[in-house]
Amino acid sequence: MTDAPPKKPTRAGVLVLRGASMRIFAMLVNVVGTLALLPIMVQSLGDYWFGIWMLIGAIVMQYHAFDFGMSQTVVRFLSKHRADGDEEGACRVFSTTIVAFLALGLLTLLIVAAALVAISVLVDDPIRRDTLLAVVALLGFTASMAFPTYVYEGSIAATLRQDIGSILLLMRASIRIALTYFALRAGYGIVTVALIAVFTDTVYRIALWFLQRRIYPELKFVRSLVSWKYFKEMLKFGRFVFLSNISKFSITHSSVIIVSSLIGVTANATYAIALNVITRLEGLIRLGFFVTMPAFTDIAVRSADHRILRERFFVVTRVVAFGVSLIGGGLIVAGHEFITAWIGPDYTDAYLPLLILMSAWMFDLVQVPALQLMTALGKHKRFAYYDFGIACCSVAAASALAIPYGIVGVAFGVGLPVAVGAVALKSRNVCRELEIPLPYYFGQVGRVMLGSFAFQVPVWFLLQDMPPMNLGELFLFGCITYGAIAVPILLIIMPRSDQIYLAGLLPLRVRRLVWQILPHLRPPAGKGAA
């Protein structure tokens, strides 16, 4: 009896596609569910408490950026050690960062305790004070527990198995959305919503711990491998990731604080509608394609040839440009109708901020592959400086324009530096690193985005002749119209090499079906036809 042949390892490209697809699907469920809940939250909590919820959420998210870039650094270092076959180095990364994040979690609890004391002293109304104390305590606790979780999420990402990790994200989002919906419908308030967040986060973290032990069993905590020297080395790399992260969080979440303090908490409810759409889309793109960084790292470690990196970079960039221009264009085309059907006609003032922010963010989101690639190469320092400068300009401009122009001024002050920085600075930097002519890069990205926008013009004209629609009818209209134009855009605008490469990453049965329908996507003989 002969031994069975060893199982052929799954291609990295397939794992990247599978992980990105599942990540995007999980995020999509979260985005759709959260946006569906938003009208119910506004109605149930009222403008004041909804504005408070958004303000506390913005502060918590801002604080989460103070991980000193270690969450993404874990992914990069673990990916490198896996590619080198260095098991001890991987355990050193894991053990050191676990200790560091536990310390950061403890520091978070101390800060939350100080915030609770401040609320007790500063808030006079006993009902509002007690409610704020409960919400801050609950959200502060779950925020402190988030830091050690980053290590486990990073270890799963380093194995390119985010498809499995995304199942947990999907379950957490589904359970939280369902529980929040029933709680609000039953008349419960903001404290119950915070309790649901703590419960679902805790269950997710326990499940993540078990999953990490199953997927990456070699990765263990070894106290003797905890190294302050190694931590400083990681921190040296992660400080620029941290600078970039804190800058990005400041661009969006600081604007919520600006609106609350300079315009009013109730105005925050309207502004938050636009910002929620943008931040959810940004999270969808960034998390969905975060899985490409381990793949870029693997290519960089195994080969010094930038040719392969350039090819993969352009494939991912064109795919991101396609998705961003399609979704972003759809929000611009139907944003007013969407807000009317989604929240109600009383909140249509959110459309102009949505239009401004979406227009700016499309340019920045196209740079996501560039950021992942530069981080994988360890050359993200300049990107971090760019993001910091953009954040400073955005906060300053939003503060200056808030009082005279309201939430529209805040959106414009935030959006303009973001768009200019993406086009004028980030594009030039990645092209210089990969030795890509800048006009060629702009031509590749511009062809996809402009082609996508051109296909959407008829949809806009068609929408002008349509009667007012509810959310379900608008969704059906979007599925029909954008489903009809998405495939032609993909087949006409995207290069054939991208189409062949993406088709080759599909499961074999799906791939063969695609080849039967579109035979021109079959690769040349000897290059992967199966």
What is the structural class?
Answer: mainly alpha
If you average the pLDDT, what whole number results?
A: 79
The total of beta strands comes to 0
Task: List unreliable stretches of 5+ residues.
Answer: 1-11, 290-294
Q: What is the count of helical runs?
A: 17
Relative strand content: under 5%
Rg over CA atoms, rounded to whole Å, is 23 Å
Question: Biggest β-sheet, characterized?
Answer: none
Folded structure, characterized:
It is a single chain. The protein is globular and about 75 Å long. 83% of the residues lie in helices and 0% in strands. Helix 2 runs antiparallel to helix 3 (87-122) and helix 9 (292-302) crosses helix 12 (368-376). By secondary structure, it is mainly alpha-helical. It is built from 17 helices and no strands.
Précis, in short:
By secondary structure, the chain is mainly α.
List the helices and strands and how they pair.
Layout: H1 12-64, H2 70-84, H3 87-122, H4 126-158, H5 162-185, H6 190-215, H7 228-263, H8 265-289, H9 292-302, H10 306-342, H11 351-365, H12 368-376, H13 381-434, H14 438-464, H15 471-492, H16 496-504, H17 508-517
Helix pairs in contact: 1-4, 1-5, 1-7, 1-8, 2-3, 2-4, 2-7, 2-9, 3-4, 3-7, 4-6, 5-6, 7-8, 7-13, 8-11, 9-10, 9-12, 10-11, 10-12, 10-14, 10-15, 11-13, 12-13, 14-15
